[in-house]
Amino acid sequence: MLRFLAIDGIKQMQHLPSKLKLFRSLRASLSLPPPHPKPTIKKRAAEQNCLSLLQLCNSLPKLLQLQSHIFKLGLQSNPLVLTKFISISSDLNAISHASSFIFSPYVKAHFFDTFLFNTIIRSYAVTSDFKHNALCLYGKMLRYGIWPNKFTYPFVLKACAGIGELKLGQTVHGSVVKLGFDDDSHVLNTMVHMYCCCDGGVEYGRKLFDEMPNWDSVGWSAMIGGYVRWGLSSEAVGLFREMQVAEVAPDEFTMVCLLSACIDLGALELGKWLEAYIERENVPKSVVLWNALIDMFAKCGDVDKALSLFRSMSQRNIVSWTSVIDGMAMHGRGTEAVSLFEEMKKDGVVPDDVSFIGLLTACSHSALVEQGKGYFYSMTKEFGISPKIEHYGCMVDLLCRAGLVQEALDFVQRMPIKPNPVIWRTLITACRAHGELKLGEKITKELIKHEPMHDSNYVLLSNIYAKMFSWEKKTMIREVMAKKGMRKVPGSTMIELYNEIYEFVSGDQSHSEYKIIYQMVDDIGKEIGRAGYVASTSEVLLDIDEEDKEGAVNRHSEKLAIAFALMKTPTGTPIRIVKNLRVCEDCHSATKFISKTYKREILVRDRNRFHCFIDGVCSCKDFW
């Protein structure tokens, strides 16, 4: 399989743009560079002096002085000195300057060696914006006739991973096989990581992983991390179980990836098990792992546990504070989020733009309008942070949730940067919720002109027409969507029960017990109907009679999941579910009645926040 992928990668090479054909110079035989001249005692002393000075270099001005010193000593072609110069330049974020010096006409390239090229390739591979330079230098290395070694390819593959070009990665894979480094575990692990970073590469990564002669924790972590990166969280958890069977001890990175999978799945019980495993197996708990645990508990519904972990940390960074502030925001505990933000400032931690997003979201979800405005303007005045589109979006959301639609519109029109479609959709939703239907219709039509293939814009307009009882226009929207091949994104809800994840979609009949579940949904409808529940059908897309509409909303995914939980769990057990979309008006109302009628605490995480339903009341106070 390894060789099949490699050969396929080499065949793909001819289709790449010319700037990516970096590997043509890889020939059956590569000439070795000429041997280095034997240094004299004087030269050796000068070399050691220069290396010592480079080791002490800690600023760009000193680096420039040392560059002149290298010339004065005649060491501009000494590979050992040049390699150290590159390494120090990388530490000082001056790799581009080092590269221009190394490859200047004053430096004799025929003295270069593999170690020097590995160092400069690595330096570019770890940058954010210049990873392509690492590949260009790899091509130059081959053109100079310098042999790569097993330490070259992890850096080259890391650069490929950062660029995310699958065909380019396959080409490098071909070179690895041709030079015989396809049995080195470090190279193979990095190659798995590379494939998992490329769109469409996860399957290649898994095939490569399965064919590896030996597995270590790095390889397992790379594959698990790849699954999590592309939203394949169930596969990540399944692979972790295989890892346990193989008796390979997971490392910190594995745990961080699995905690991210728990967040995606809403799997609180699995997250608790992972926390216990970390303690039991004495997995080192760095700040990164602490932060991942806090984030998992907050986003899986146990924000008090997240806060407890935060309080027990001996060292915290800005991510620690932001994670717990975000958690409070998602749970509608805005006052506590504000208190934590003020505590963070007193602790000497300077907030960044990300922490302000969490803070403004907290204000939005808790109707703290004036405080939210104050914090928004303090970003620039107090901390010198220029608001980004996300911060403006938070402010629009804050005003819209408070019913201040006109003020929100004025705010958008005064924004110094162009509003994005998310901001306009926030305004449209508020127009529908607060009766500004004509304004909502006008904005939505403009949005459709700019995004004619975005299905949610049509659904928003359809919902506005439903509120206006304009059934003819609503039907027309349905027909337009059908002609364009659009469908409303189906709602799906996940629930974790007894170490298994179950997923339901609207109208789902795939479950083996779906008939019993549907009967339970009908029974629930009768029970809560007697308690005063009336179905809200205005968000049903189709123009059908009212009885059929009630049937349609009765098959929403969250109702199926709640019915399944009521069937399978003891009386009084809390129910936790995760919805992929914003919870609809009808399901929100129905869940309040279910929590009271069946005496259950029901925690719903939707696309925006948590809703905690207890005894007929939601924690969002209908402000969602």
TrEMBL record:
Keyword check for Ribonucleoprotein: no
Organism annotation: Datura stramonium (Jimsonweed)
Family: Belongs to the PPR family. PCMP-H subfamily.
Domain DYW: 532-624
PPR repeats, residue ranges: 113-148, 216-250, 286-316, 317-351
Organismal lineage: Eukaryota, Viridiplantae, Streptophyta, Embryophyta, Tracheophyta
Record's keyword terms, sorted: Repeat
Pfam family, any one: PPR_1
Alphabetized InterPro entries for the sequence: DYW_dom, E_motif, PPR_At4g14850-like_plant, PPR_rpt, TPR-like_helical_dom_sf
Name assigned to this protein: DYW domain-containing protein
Top-level taxon: Eukaryota
Keyword Repeat recorded: yes
